[in-house]
Design a protein that fits this description.
Blueprint lengths: L1 H10 L1 H28 L9 H18 L6 H15 L4 H5 L4
Helix pairs in contact: 1-2, 3-4
Amino acid sequence: MIAALLTEAQTDPVFARQYRTRFVEPRREQARAIFRRAIGRGEIPADTKIEVALDLLYGPVYHRLLHGHAPLNDRFVRDVIDTALDGIAPPTTARASAPAG
């Protein structure tokens, strides 16, 4: 169903605006709130680029959905979240002292 909506959004600008307003944006706003709470609790850095973080989470899911090259299941979603959050989590002492490369 989502793939069909995305296809329609690519060809119909009016539908695309409605799709983003009614489907995409409410979900992203919920996720933004989660990130803001995590920042408030000190779980992730205050300067986290929330929009980029959201794209890091949603991108792989939509990639699998659209290409169908591998299963889109709960394990994959958990792995994506863990991997993305590990990349934006505050650095550990070991990571902070490692040379950039």
